[in-house]
Each structure stands twice: as C-alpha cells, then as structure tokens.
Write a structure and sequence with these properties.
single chain, alpha+beta, nine-stranded mixed β-sheet, three-stranded antiparallel β-sheet
Length: 494
C-alpha cells in the first residue's frame, strides 16, 4: 500500500491501489457528505420510485467515481484485481441485480473507510515528525579541555560529552560530573522531571536490564521500540511481527474481547516446526512446473507487499497434473523467495535438500480428500485475522461478490492444524472453500492459484469493510431470498 502519493515512483504508482485517492482527499468528505444526502433523499419515500433509483445511482457515482476511474486505468495497465476493480465489480453487480441501495451504500462505506485510513496515516506522520524534533543535531565532545561540537555518530564509546543547560542529551551514557533535572517524558512517559547525578543509569542500562530478564523487545513509553536479536534479519522479523500484532489488537478490539492461546497450545507450533519426509531426487522441471513456480513467486511477492503475511510466515501451494504439488519452504523470507526455493512434494516425499513449510501435511491431506482443489493459500491478512482472535463470526453475506467467492466461512480450532490434519482437511468443500483457524491463520482453497488468491483478496477486503462499518451502525446482510437468487444466477453448489 502506498502511504503517501508523492513518495511513489512511476512504477510504484502502477502497483498502488490507494494512490488515486491522495489528490482528492481534501474533497472526499464533501463527496461522501453529498452522497449521503442523495442516499437519504432516495430512501425518504417522498419521491417516485424512478427518481429514487436515479438518486441511488447518483449517490453511487458521486462517492465512487474515482474508484471506477482508477479501476479502469489499472486494468489498462495490466493490474486486473486490485481493490478498486473488486469494489467496482461488486457494486456494478449489485446494480445489475437491481440492488441500487446496496451499491450506493457499499461505495459510501468503502470511501468512508478510505478517508478514515488517510486521516490515521496523516496523524501517524505528524507524530513521527514531533518525535524527530527531539532528535539531537550535535554532541559537545571534550577535546583538550574544551567542548567541540561533533555529529552524534562521531562520538566513540568512552568519550566524554558535555551537556549544557537547555540542550538535548544526544547519547546514552553515565553522568560523571555535575547535576541536572532532565525532562525524560518522551522516553518514559512520566511527566515528572528526573534528577541526574554522577552515577545515574542511562536509558541503555535500563534496556539492558529488560533484556537480561529474557525479553528481546522493549517498548519505550512515548518514544519507540528497542529490539535485540543475534542478527539484523531476526531483529527486523521481530519488529515486523510486533507491528503486525499491535495492528491486529487494535482492529480486533472493534469486534469484541480478544482471546489468547493457552500455554500448551502456544508451544504446539514450535514442536511441529519441521515435518519429517523422505527425500527424492527430482528430474528436470516440466513446462507446467516452471509456469507454476513462476506464478507462485509472483503472487507470494504480491501478497507480502499487500501485508497478507509477514517475514517467513504464510504458506502457498499448487497442485501439478501428476498429483505432486509445489509448496513454500520453511524459514525463508517471503519477500525474497525465488522460484527454485519452492519445494516439490510427491507421494509423501520432498525434494532432496529442501524443507517444506510446517503446514505441508495439511496441504497434502486437502489435496488427497478434494481432487477439485488446485491451490491452497495459508495467510495472515490482518483484518480477517481480527475474527480469528475474537469470538466474532465472519459473515460473508455483505456484498454479492463476497458471498459468491467465499460462501460460508467456518472457524476451526487451533489444535486441529497440528494434531488432526485429516479432520481439518475434511472441513472444506464447495460450500466452504475458506476457513479461519483460531489464533493462527486463514486457509483458502481454489480450483486454481488465481481463484484462491482472488478469494483471499476478497476476504481481506470484506473484513476491512466490516470493521470500518462498525463506526457507522449495524451491517445489513444479504437476505436468505437474495442468497437463493445468487445461488441460482451463479450456479453455486451446496
């Protein structure tokens, strides 16, 4: 997602689903307000039916004209399935079915969510800018009895720096001489000033104490995060996971009480990290396999950029015509995964020298029980995962496209993914192609990789819309009779 339009390169602009909103954000509240007024006039019952229909269409156009334009522009550029296209297809589908109020309201809700997201990003940038104000520009190092200004990065361990009254303390250290009252609220969150005397412990020492207790992450009140790790990759992975978890908690709190895993379940995934499979030596890749590897890597990289999973998490697989399947490897950063890193699994054996994802047995069981399934995606889209960590049920009966692609979404217990892959595999069928695993992941199946990915995108978009709508009122779900019409029109099996 592009967080600021003027930071996007030409290439990024083509890949960004939100950039088209940035120039018009100043006018977006006015358009949303105008669309709401048109919608209210249409539902007032004071106008003839034809006039009411015209106002619904006008409300839809006023709210979503830029969405439709962006969808058409991106399609011409080869980007077929972004959120703009999905939203356009969904609302046009509602119009086609004669559900003009639903088309207008969905577009209004979507634009309202976009605007709220934009405001949240702007608020975050202002907060970052305020934090940058406390960054010191220089440090006064003692050199031959005098204080000489140096850049903070030029100061070495053991150097003596001099801090005068009113200056910012540029680096961690110990007070060796003098006394001062220091404002540490930006670091500790405490409003009272702190008295420093010779021997006072600095921030680095306090963080060291936290790490000595077995923690690898320290949250600094009103300041930031400090993460310790044996290497840069592990540190970044921990930071990425921390940021994801914090976002998930904020979103989940909109749905209800967040439930945690018990201690025994918490360690279950660690004991099943590596599935032992016999090895086989593969021959040269067929054209089918090469194409599948290419398509998988394309969508894996796209998924990572979209935030559908992080770091080494997330498992994708594709079935080949000979009954074998390709699956993502264990412990590889999804952002840098290459075609040859993918692991082929055949007859319960794996490629020599490679380790498949720990979910390989679940994928194998699903393929064995469901010959129609051609691809399986195990991901962690943050909005959909909000339903996995609460008791809230995910109801896809929101817009026609959501129900058509997702059908009825089950919530499965955490333990089954590790203890009973056969039982979990049996939960999927044509009426239940998607499932949420408590506190773990989202599992999506499809007859092809593209269909599975389409379902994953629609699921995350639907979850996002549901969460955004919480601030507007109760969700109006598609009725049973409308569901029956959809099943008939799109030949949906039960």
């Amino acid at each position: 997602m592009c967080k600021e339009h003027h930071h996007c390169s030409h290439h990024q602009a083509q890949e960004c689903g939100h950039c088209h909103h940035e120039h018009g954000n100043a006018r977006l509240p006015l358009r949303i307000g105008a669309a709401v007024l048109l919608f209210a006039a249409a539902v007032s019952g004071l106008l003839p039916p034809a006039a009411g229909t015209a106002l619904f269409v006008a409300a839809w156009f006023v709210a979503g004209a830029d969405i439709v334009y962006a969808a058409g522009r991106n399609i011409l550029r080869g980007k077929w399935l972004d959120e703009n296209a999905l939203m356009t297809i969904a609302t046009l589908g509602a119009v086609f079915l004669g559900e003009y109020p639903e088309a207008a309201m969905v577009m209004i809700l979507f634009q309202s969510g976009e605007y709220l997201q934009h405001k949240a990003v702007e608020s975050s940038k202002r907060s970052i800018a305020e934090l940058m104000d406390i960054r010191p520009d220089y440090a006064c190092r003692e050199e031959n009895g005098t204080a000489v200004r140096r850049r903070p990065e030029e100061i070495a361990v053991g150097d003596v720096i001099i801090v005068k009254s009113g200056e910012k303390i540029p680096l961690d250290g110990l007070v060796t001489d003098g006394e001062a009252t220091v404002d540490t609220s930006a670091l500790t969150g405490e409003s009272l000033p702190r008295r420093l005397v010779p021997g006072s412990e600095a921030l680095g020492v306090e963080i060291g104490k936290v790490f000595s207790q077995g923690c690898d992450t320290a949250l600094l009140e009103n300041h930031g995060v400090c993460i310790g790790a044996p290497d840069m990759f592990t540190a970044f992975q921990r930071f990425e996971t921390l940021n994801y978890t914090a976002t998930l908690e904020v979103l989940a709190s909109k749905l209800g009480k967040i439930h945690s895993l018990p201690e025994n379940a918490y360690h279950m995934s660690e004991t099943n990290a590596h599935t032992k499979l016999d090895d086989f030596i593969p021959r040269s890749h067929t054209s089918e396999e090469l194409a599948a590897r290419r398509d998988m890597i394309t969508l894996i990289h796209r998924s990572y950029k979209m935030g559908l999973f992080t770091a080494t998490h997330g498992t994708y697989s594709v079935r080949l015509s000979d009954g074998s399947f390709l699956i993502t490897p264990f412990g590889f950063d999804r952002a840098y995964l290459e075609e040859d890193d993918l692991v082929r699994v055949k007859g319960g054996m794996k490629e020599l020298g490679k380790t498949p994802s720990r979910a390989v047995l679940l994928h194998q069981k699903i393929y064995e029980q469901h010959p129609d399934v051609g691809a399986i995606l195990l991901a962690h889209p943050v909005h959909a995962m909000a339903f996995a960590v609460t008791d809230a049920a995910f109801d896809a009966r929101t817009i026609p496209e959501s129900y058509i692609l997702l059908r009825d979404v089950k919530t499965l217990p955490y333990e089954e993914i590790y203890r009973e892959p056969d039982k979990m595999a049996a939960e999927f069928d044509v009426s239940h192609p998607v499932a949420i695993v408590e506190n773990d992941c989202v599992i999506v199946t499809g007859n092809s990789l593209l269909q599975a990915f389409d379902r994953l995108e629609v699921m995350e978009l639907t979850a996002n819309s549901i969460l955004d709508s919480q601030s507007l009122g109760s969700i109006v779900h598609i009725s049973d009779s409308e569901i029956a019409d959809l099943k008939t029109a799109f030949h949906l099996e039960d």
